[in-house]
Write a structure and sequence with these properties.
163 residues, mainly alpha, 54% helix
Amino acid sequence: MLWPVFPWQQAVSGLWAVRASWRRAAGMCLERGYRGDSGQDPLDIPLPPWEARPNEPICTKRRRLLYESRKRGMLENCILLSLFAKKYLDSMTEPQLLQYDRLINEPSNDWDIYYWATGAQPSPPQYQGDVMQLLQEFTQNRDMEARLRQPDLEYLDTDSATR
């Protein structure tokens, strides 16, 4: 069965044909997405390498890591890492803070961190250590806590008053 073609449909389809031919003539890309000036696929653009901050004061490092734990590329890691940071960040030693810093900032894909934490994929050797064991244990949620949102930041005011 053929559907009737109305004059307004022909006008609209003709407009799109003109627009598409104009783009081809102008040399415009017909694909969606931003490729930038590099001409590369946006997912292939390398990120700057992670660098340790050896002279950073420990209280500044804890605050920065708390912020970076809360502001991730995906909600699952925002919740998981912010709750983990609330529980463990203040009790971590300086080498553990360095491990945690490397773990959350060196991998370019947040899904990798999530898969390693949940045990869906084995973590690479450079990220295995005390912090990864703590994170994997925390992720198992043996106490069956409700983890539906990030913790409020009011706990920082009470902690900073005691320091």
